[in-house]
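Quick question, first post here. What does this chain look like in 3D?
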Amino acid sequence: MIIQKTVQEYINLGYSYYIKNNDIKVKPFLKWAGGKGQMISEIEKYYPFANTTINKYAEPFVGGGAVLFDILNKYNLKEVYISDINSELINTYNIIRDNIDSIIDILSVIQLEFTSIDIDNRKAYYIKKRERFNELKLDNNKDINIEKAALMIYLNKTCFNGLYRVNKNRKFNVPMGHYKNPKICDEENLRAVSDKLKNVTIVCEDYHKSDDFIDQNTFVYFDPPYRPLTTTSSFTAYTENEFNDKEQIDLSSYINRLHKKGAKILVSNSDPKNININDTFFDDIYASYFIKRVNATRMINSNGQSRGKIKELLISNFLI
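> Answer (accepted):
Ran it through. Tokens below.
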């Protein structure tokens, strides 16, 4: 006869990291280009946490964190590590985790001010806040990090398509979008996110710095800047750094290193075969891995009419 154990009995046995988490569900607090919210149903098939030896999670290109928050909603893991080279993004994660009351206070004021302005006059307010953000962005004074994080969220919620783009002078330059009533201060979700992040290690570094954290007990998800499908679809300006084919190859070499450690690894990227059936770039550099082509809805060039179903790659070192 099979005896069903209670949740508490599993916790007493030390298996709490794979018990499903029934707390309030969180969602990404930012819109992010290339966000994985629409692909969670495919990505979650790779979650290996039912295997009790996999009790750590690392996401070295965290971005908006759709996969991170899905995992935090579902599992209580031993350790979680996230990183990104975008310092403003990582600052916002840190401030939400460590200074939630302060950032909500600022966002509440911004929400009230912005929504009380006539729609025709909101552009001037937006430009003023964008200029202030850029002023703080170029200032390394840590005392202004809370205001800077609040402005990061405000701009994300009100700019065109939620893009984060900087020019050669490192200044955020995305124009205002057209939203009648944007939810700038989602207090309930922000407080829930803060709670979920309490035990998460948050690092502003490139992906190589995750090496010390990752071991044979870790599931690692890589969502790097995608290889552009066309010359007009290239968008790598999340930071001041490019991520070209050389960087893609360097990443694959790093993934080979982690594979030898015994980590479970999943990688997302664009599928060049959408445009050129003979382009085997990823098939070649990940020839020893399992490659699955899945449907996704993406903008494949600068023409807004060209948004539609295309294939993306999920590359793993284990079968599902």
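Confidence is low (pLDDT under 50) at residues 1-20, 233-239, 300-306.
The longest strand covers residues 290-299.
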